[in-house]
Each structure stands twice: as C-alpha cells, then as structure tokens.
Amino acid sequence: MGRLVEEFYDELERRCTEAIELSPGGPVVALNIPIGQWHTVRALESGTVIMEVKDGPYEPTGEEDILK
Length: 68
Description:
28% strand
C-alpha cells in the first residue's frame, strides 16, 4: 500500500500550483509529468513505494535543478 502527494510548482514564483494525491485504490494511481515541470513528491505513509520512469539516459541532478 502507500499514499503520496505529487506537488507541482510555478517556476517564476516557486509556489505550489497543484497537489494531487495518489494511492493504489484511489482515483489517481499514476501521473505523466511534462518535461520541465517543477515538482516534488511527499510520501504520506511509511513504506510507500514510488516508481519513476523517464525517457533517455540517467542524468544526475545539478544545482540548477533544485529550487531554493
């Protein structure tokens, strides 16, 4: 089991613009996040498992990729 919230952010003001809860039996079980969309994930339950799939090769996160 497990539940999480995916939060989307505005690039200019760095404010949360949308928060979507995902859970195995809920109305949302997966999301497609557009390229370049600022986002983060918050687990709501211990033991929550997240699977992320991306196109292309792995690229480590750089300083410019982190909101401060």
